[in-house]
From TrEMBL:
UniProtKB keywords: Signal, Transport
Name the record gives this protein: N-acetylglucosamine/diacetylchitobiose ABC transporter substrate-binding protein
Family: Belongs to the bacterial solute-binding protein 1 family.
NCBIfam families cross-referenced by the UniProt entry: chitin_NgcE
Compartments (UniProt record): Cell envelope
Keyword Repeat set for record: no
Highest taxon above the source species: Bacteria
Region (Disordered): 46-66
Major site of localization recorded for this protein: other
Organism name: Streptomyces coerulescens
Start-end of Basic and acidic residues biased regions: 53-62
Length: 487
């Protein structure tokens, strides 16, 4: 995975609702949280000095709306992950071209926390950080201790491409809200944009003379057809079964409505006992009971399951859009990679077929005590231009937060399919926040101890739901963790 949110072990009413309003309900507030005691301690002091060394503000002009000091150094630290660093280096060159007296101090590392923790504590952090990876710093702590700059000036600045359009007006729905916590201020800019769903080979589906199934009866029929031809219907990351929600959660939202997902995120009592949850759990369990899951799947990690799927041993796999880049070395050239929104139960579902999970990833932050906060924001303004977005998309096979950036470039099969899936979804894009707000609950408890056990046949759906509701109730009562709610 190029991004590094909590999910990937390797990198580490009746009134009509508008698309932005719908996603706002689904996207507001929380961020991925991977706390460590050393970082909590380090940030508790609120940082040291460093403010005295702030770069003087430059003159604000049409070309320099943020008032960047055109002689002040800017430092940019990137997470060196699956997206690589070339896209960022290209954006740095544009910054240096626009401010010729400046040389950007750019570096890339996988050890974000251990590298930057001491500098936050000393009050001397860099100006822009891609806070990602296994060593991602705890966003809640950073915001709670006033360690981050509010990115509203960036969002209200004119975009690089059209001075009559603010940066915020060029972004995909939900991106701004994802960077907020309990108010209007925006602390994080998620740069990548991930499409989650059911991934498959269109060639394999065509060989069965089938189309992607829209109802569960159709799904079972396709899996039976595949089984007769020696192909399993499904596989998944058995060792990391929290991949299952990438298709299961939006299915629950499709069947029961967005409010069911919101109740689950809010840790509301009995949220997991909703009929939509029961129906979807029973549907997935049926895949196991009928033998439609690739044998041995519970013992496979994400790479092994993706490889078996790429080799044609299984038809469907729940995953995110990073899978195209991550599995590029094993996916055959004629595979014709495609993604679909999850199959529903039947015509009684609350939302239409096409309802999909998509959200921001790769969180960029500008530290409050950085010497050149205007420079850090300007670098982000450059990255959120059409040209930089296209550059990112063409190089790493992923969309960005910029709402566009695909015209004129040749899209890879998976990326093209992802764009089509988003177009089909329209306003029906959901964004469950459980994996961001409560990492341990989502991964270890719901994922491994709940869904993993059920899909391995060691728990019935009813037992899994009871167990997971218990885990959620425990988290709701845990005063040691910060709780979030959809607004």
């Amino acid at each position: 995975m190029g991004s590094t949110s909590a999910q990937n072990p390797e990198y580490n009413g009746s009134a009509p609702v508008g698309r932005r309003d719908l996603i706002k309900r689904s996207a507001a507030l929380g961020l991925i949280s991977v706390p460590t005691m050393s970082f909590l301690s380090a940030c508790a002091s609120g940082g040291g000095g460093g403010n005295g060394d702030k770069a003087k503000e430059g003159e604000k002009t049409a070309k320099n709306p943020l008032g960047v000091n055109d002689t002040a150094q800017m430092e940019f630290v990137l997470f060196d992950g699956g997206f690589g660093k070339e896209y960022a280096e290209d954006a740095v060159k544009i910054y240096e071209k626009n401010f010729p007296e400046v040389t950007v101090k750019f570096s890339a590392t996988q050890k974000i926390q251990s590298t930057l923790q001491p500098r936050f504590n000393q009050g001397t952090p860099p100006d822009l950080i891609d806070n990602s990876g296994a060593e991602q710093m705890d966003m809640g702590v950073l915001v709670g201790k006033d360690q981050l700059a509010d990115l509203t000036p960036l969002l209200d600045a004119p975009s690089l491409d059209d001075p009559n359009k603010k940066v915020r007006d060029t972004l995909r729905p939900g991106i701004v809200e994802m960077g907020q916590f309990d108010g209007e201020k925006v602390w994080i800019m998620y740069y990548a944009y991930t499409v989650y769903g059911v991934w498959y080979s269109q060639k394999a589906l065509d060989s069965l003379d089938e189309q992607y199934p829209e109802t569960w009866d159709q799904m079972l029929a396709v899996c039976e057809k595949a089984k007769k031809k020696g192909m399993a219907g499904w596989t998944y990351a058995g060792k990391y079964p929290y991949y299952l929600p990438f298709s299961l959660y939006p299915m629950i939202g499709k069947v029961g409505g967005v409010e069911v997902l919101d109740a689950i995120d809010n840790l509301e009592p009995n949220a997991w006992k909703h009929p939509a949850v029961k129906a979807c759990f029973e549907a997935y369990y049926e895949l196991y009971k009928k033998g439609y899951v690739l044998k041995g799947t519970p013992g496979l990690d994400h790479i092994q399951s993706q490889t078996a799927w790429a080799q044609g041993k299984a038809l469907f796999i729940p995953n995110g859009s990073w899978v195209e880049n991550e599995s590029a070395n094993v996916i055959p050239k004629d595979f014709d990679l495609a993604v679909s929104a999850p199959t529903g139960i039947d015509s009684s579902d609350k939302l239409p077929f096409g309802t999909i999970w998509a959200s921001g990833g790769e969180p960029f932050i500008v530290p409050a005590k950085a010497k050149n906060t205007a420079g850090g924001m300007e670098q982000l303004r450059i990255m959120l231009s059409e040209a930089s977005s296209k550059n990112f998309t063409s190089k790493v096979k992923s969309l960005t937060a910029y709402n566009g950036g695909t015209d004129g470039i040749t899209l890879t099969p998976g990326l093209k399919s992802g764009v089509a899936a988003l177009d089909k979804a329209g306003q029906n894009v959901v964004n469950p926040r459980l994996q961001d707000w409560y990492v341990q609950l989502q991964k270890e408890k719901i994922g491994v101890s709940g869904l993993g056990e059920m899909m391995a046949g060691r728990l019935t759906p009813a037992e899994a739901i009871k167990k997971i509701q218990g885990f959620a109730d425990e988290a709701a009562k845990d005063t040691s963790i910060k709780h979030y709610k959809h607004q």
